[in-house]
Amino acid sequence: MGEGGRLREGVRTYLMIAGMWVRSTMAYRASFAMTTFGNFAATFFDFVAIMLMFSRVDMLAGWTLPEVAFLYGLSGTAFGLADLVIGSMERLGRRVRDGTLDTLLVRPAPVLAQVAADQFALRRLGRVTQGALVLGWAVSRLDVDWTLPKLLLMPVAVLSGCGIFCAVFVTGAAFQFLAQDAAEVQNAFTYGGTTLLQYPPSVFAKELVRGVTFVLPLAFVNWLPASWILGRPYPLDLPDWLAFTPPLVAVGCCALAGLAWRAGLRSYRSTGS
Amino acid sequence: MTDDGFIALQGVEKVFEVRKKAGFLKRERRAVRAVDGISFAVARGEMVGYIGPNGAGKSTTIKMLTGILTPSAGRLRVAGIDPSRERRLLAHRIGVVFGQRTTLWWDLPLIDSYRLAHRMYRIPDARYRENLDRLVELLELGDLLDVPVRQLSLGQRMRGDIAAALLHDPEVLYLDEPTIGLDVVSKAKVRGFLRELNAERGTTVLLTTHDLQDIEQLCSRVMVIDHGRLMYDGPLAGLHEAGESERTLVVDLERELPPVEVESARVVRVEGPRQWLAFPAGRSAAPLVARLAAEYPLVDLSVREPDIEAVIAKMYAEKAVS
């Protein structure tokens, strides 16, 4: 089977299993409605905290509220999408511990797709909705001369950002084959990463900005594309064209995450730990 | 591929490296041989019991046979396929039932799990319908198809799991403790079905169990594994001989009497009018009962089977002596 066939098989498996989870959740409609609302509300108050901060100051490290909201909306939507698609992968460690991963390994379907769709939860749409609303509000308030490239870069940045976060989720899950209680470490990079991206890069120390640009390339989720769209100086005086590289960075990250996953699964199958 | 090697293992080993905490940040590595050079062959259509104490290497063997784990050494083939290399290809030809972990969808009606298997295994429509009808009839699932799995009893769920593992017509069925926790009626249903499956469709069955009666009623051949090695491979009767295991006849007499004296059995315990007699497991209880009934005032009796742990323990004791 070629890579194309593999991908198709993976997507097919993913949709089948995600569909089963959606129907499982619908067995408890009231609970579904409440958790979706809860998910939305929790992230909503997250943004309220930022608004409260701006009631005291006009600028945050040189950025206005709509600008910070723009950063927030881009990373929030990208992260929300990734969380919706494969956020449950952090449960892999539990599946390894209790042995239920084995039941997935005896099926004629790719394990990554099965694990990614595990516990698929539509309630996570709450976070995506909140991110998109903040993004929409920011766009309506920003004083930006909208051109076609600027408009196009937004969805590209969101999708690439989603890809980058997905890669972080998969890598974290691959690591859980070795250390089954590593979910918290993974959360530091995913939830922690998205919180970091809600603030302008000028708030943070140079070393940290360098880290999330060159080591864990979260800066490509929103800092670089947003800086270009808003006409802001780039963090670390990076070249302009980097604002258009998020798709490449996302593909690269996903490829590396795929390798990490393969290595993790191979190690599980040889150690069974 | 010859048919007598439908499942074939040659010198299969599985070594785990266990890391143990030995102080702050320090880890000690220790190699554990879970399976230590096992060789056996199972012919197509055989029904084999695979038994041994906990931690003996049973499930590790099953995991290698299903392609979950990669062997550390040795050669392993199932239906001519190397399981660890072609896991997904093999998945179409084997069925697996984990007694303690259901693969059914907890919150959905039973039929939904079957529909998923239909699509995931790409079972042709006609064959799926035919298999489903047959399994539903044989396993008495008709009234349960629309019931959410979480509402099924343990026995019903086990039958549901067995059906799920067989929808794609696998040639081999692995069962890990298929009767664990089931009541007598459910056990009988499961065993009856497995016997029929094996006889009618020639499905090769390999089952691990703690219940010696599973083996007695189902398997013509039993393999005993302990410490990662195959200790015994042959008929069940031979196992009893090798382990010198004994069944126990419990008799209630009309009144307290001195230990009964009867050929081919010995009294191991007396408690008021109740006495415990041990006799070789390979023998029938009938002649013994007949003689007792003729010579003593018998009120009631029951026969207790030896359990696997006891049989294996005796086997060891025997080895240590000889």
UniProtKB/TrEMBL annotation, chain B:
Ordered alphabetically, the record's keywords are: Antibiotic resistance, ATP-binding, Nucleotide-binding, Transport
Pfam families for this protein: ABC_tran
Q: Name one GO molecular function term.
A: ATP binding
Bilayer disposition of the protein: Peripheral membrane protein
Q: Which InterPro entries match?
A: AAA+_ATPase (IPR003593), ABC_transporter-like_ATP-bd (IPR003439), ABC_transporter_ATP-binding (IPR050763), P-loop_NTPase (IPR027417)
- ABC transporter domain sequence ranges: 7-252
SUPFAM superfamilies in UniProt: P-loop containing nucleoside triphosphate hydrolases
> Where does it localize?
Cell membrane
Identify this protein by name.
ATP-binding cassette domain-containing protein
- Organism field: Streptomyces pyxinicus
